[in-house]
Each structure stands twice: as C-alpha cells, then as structure tokens.
Amino acid sequence: MFAVYAESFSKDDPLAGLAVGDRPAPELPDSTWTTVTVRAASLNHHDLWSLQGVGLKDEALPMILGCDAAGLDEDGNEVVVHAVISDPAWSGDETFDPRRSLLSERYQGTFAEKVAVPRTNVVPKPASMSFEEAACLPTAWLTAYRMLFTRGGLKAGDTVLVQGAGGGVATALIVLARAAGLRVLATSRDEGKRARALEIGAHDVYESGERLPVKVDAVMETVGRATWSHSVRSLRPGGRIVISGTTSGPKLDDAELTRIFFLQLSVIGSTMGTRDELASLVSMLDATGTTPLIDQVLPMEKARDGFAAMAGGDVFGKIVFTR
Ligand SMILES: NC(=O)c1ccc[n+]([C@@H]2O[C@H](COP(=O)([O-])OP(=O)(O)OC[C@H]3O[C@@H](n4cnc5c(N)ncnc54)[C@H](OP(=O)(O)O)[C@@H]3O)[C@@H](O)[C@H]2O)c1
Fold first, then answer.
1. Which atom of ligand 1 is nearest to the CA of 270?
2. Looking at ligand 1, which residue's alpha carbon is closest to its atom 23?
3. What is the pTM (predicted TM-score) of this model?
4. Between 168-179 and 275-288, two packed helices, what is the crossing angle to 10 degrees?
5. Which of 49, 116, 183, 227 is the S-S candidate for 26 at Cβ 3.0 to 4.6 Å?
6. What b-and-e string marks burial along 218-252, b requiring 16 or more CB atoms within 10 Å of the CB?
C-alpha cells in the first residue's frame, strides 16, 4: 500500500531519510485490533523527531510515520484514531502506562492507506467535522486539551500565556483556551504570527521574551530553553507552568529555581491525553463550533513539502495530508 515512511535517521538533515512509496499493509496483532482506512492524517513535530532518530531505534526501520488520522473503520463508520497504544494489561489513564507507545514508534503510523489500531483506540467523528479537521486532534489538540484542563486545571476567567504562538500545539492552546472562557496571552518571534494569534482568539500578543503588563495564572510551554526563563517570570505567586515539549532544546541556561520556590510556583509535565479526553475534546469542538486551525492541506503524495515547511518553522496551525 502507499505510505510515507522513515528509512534512515539524520540529526542534521531529517528529510534525507524520508521515503514516499510502497509498504506492506499493516498486520493485526490479534482480534482486539482493527484496521482504519485513512482519509486524512496530520503532521506533528514528533514526525520530524522520528526522522532524527528520537524515540526510534535502527531496528524499527522502515517505519511508517504519522500519529494522527481520521478515516473509516471496517464498518464504514467515520472515526478519529487515538494515537496512544497502551499495554493490553494496563487499566486507567493510559498516558501513565510505562509501556505505552505512540503510533509510528512501535506500531506502524498513519501516513498510509490503512493503519492498524486496537479497537478501543477509535472515537466517533461528528458529522460537523471534516476528516481534515478531525485528523488534527489526536496529538497536538489532545495534548493542548490535557495541558489546559486536566494537568493545568484552568477554568473560565483564568489568565494563560501560550509561548511560541505558531506551533500546532500552541495554536490549539489558543483556540481551546479562548473557547473555554480564559483570558489568553501569546508570544511569538514573528510579527505575522502574532497578528494571526489575535485573529484566532488571543486577547493580547507579545514578542518572545517581552515583559508582560500582568502576571498570569499559568503558562503553557512547548518551546523549552528559548522561553523558559520568561515563562517563570510571567507567573503570579502560586502560578503554574504546564510543559509538554522543548522544541528549542531541553537544557536551560537558568532554571530560575529561586523564583520557583520563593513564589511557590508549580512545574507540571503533560504528555498526550487519554482516549476519554480525546472523546471530550471532540464533544467540546462539536458543541462550541470550534474548528482546528489548518495551515495547509496536501495530498499524501506531497508529504515531503509538508515536512519541509515544518522543518523551516514557517507554519501557523496544522499541516494535513489527505488520501
Ligand atoms: N508531550 C507530548 O505529548 C507532546 C505532544 C505534542 C507535541 N509535543 C512537543 O511540543 C512541541 C511543539 O510541537 P508542535 O507539533 O506544535 O511543533 P511545531 O508546530 O513545529 O511548533 C513549534 C513552535 O515553537 C516555537 N519555537 C520554536 N523554536 C523557538 C525558539 N527558538 N524560540 C521561540 N519559539 C520557538 C515557534 O513559535 P513562533 O515561531 O510562533 O515563535 C513554533 O511555531 C514539540 O517539541 C513536540 O515534540 C509534545
């Protein structure tokens, strides 16, 4: 079947190992698994990390990339695929399962005609949502949902700062926070992205590192090293940082430890989300009429162009591949 996959790794030139071609159809490990025919899939920074060998070993190659998909189940129902695959023996919040993996890590990913997943890993897609929109949800949007509401515990009226406004997770954070009645501040290095952030729901926007006129209840971090100090300095006493990524690097020049204890700040890690949170996210979007922000839609055959756009950092919202 047609697939977009990693055949080698390169730290400096991740696109060198990207292949577009033919791969065997996915095998079902047992009868608790099913096959979804992919109609749309979306690109995440995770796919670029995979091409750099982050989270993947040589023996896993070739590996079909992609965590996110929406498509048709074996009965023709429209579904969204949940990307977190937990151990069959695990019960409870699957993001805490030490043996969990994401599609494209242990099991073949979604950038293909078909993807195999456990039957419990599909969520009905509402008719109000296109396949392209639904394909944005399983990683970036689910991560944003859990950061804000589960791990961050934020509620209507709170003030939140979103760092690095242009990213897939960051745009989801802005749109979801606004839809939930929060006051939303956002930073970006780029003037055009700051203007777009205002259009999609930010109340106020700032240059990366700019001192804010108010202290916030929480900061949503995916950038890491480049914005960490500013995140700590932007919090009110007792505030919290929720972090799910380190795009600019994980090693800090200054962890701001003194501020963290003196102002009694909390640093909260967050990773992906559960199947139930994905279902709640889908319901929230359906009920509020909110739609995921798409930067561009490309046929899957042109996946390389999407990867290049993400590697270049010139993206606002999600890149979606269609079949
Ligand atoms: N833990 C999880 O479950 C989980 C899930 C999803 C994603 N993630 C992680 O979260 C991060 C974001 O993912 P994504 O898919 O949203 O990536 P993305 O679309 O590539 O977003 C990257 C954004 O980060 C900002 N940025 C990058 N370098 C920066 C720098 N030096 N200074 C300031 N801002 C910088 C940019 O914002 P501006 O250009 O607007 O400044 C850019 O738009 C990745 O590291 C990813 O691995 C983790």
1. 1
2. 167
3. 0.96
4. 60
5. 116
6. bbbbbbbebbbbbbbebbeeebbbbbbbbbeeeee
- Rounded to a whole number of angstroms, the distance between the first and last alpha carbons of the chain is 12
Tokens of 145: 């949902």
Please give the Cα distance from 129 to 21 (Å, whole number).
29
Per residue in 134-189, pLDDT (tens digit) is 999 999 999 999 999 999 999 999 999 999 998 889 999 999 999 999 999 999 99
Q: 71 in ligand 1 pocket by Cβ < 6 Å?
A: no
Tokens of 298: 């490309």
Place of tokens 């997943």: 117
pLDDT tens for 67-93 read 999 999 999 999 999 999 999 999 999
Q: CA 95 to CA 152: how far, in whole Å?
A: 16
Q: How far apart are CA 145 and CA 286, in angstroms?
A: 14
Q: Is the CB of 190 under 6 A from ligand 1?
A: yes
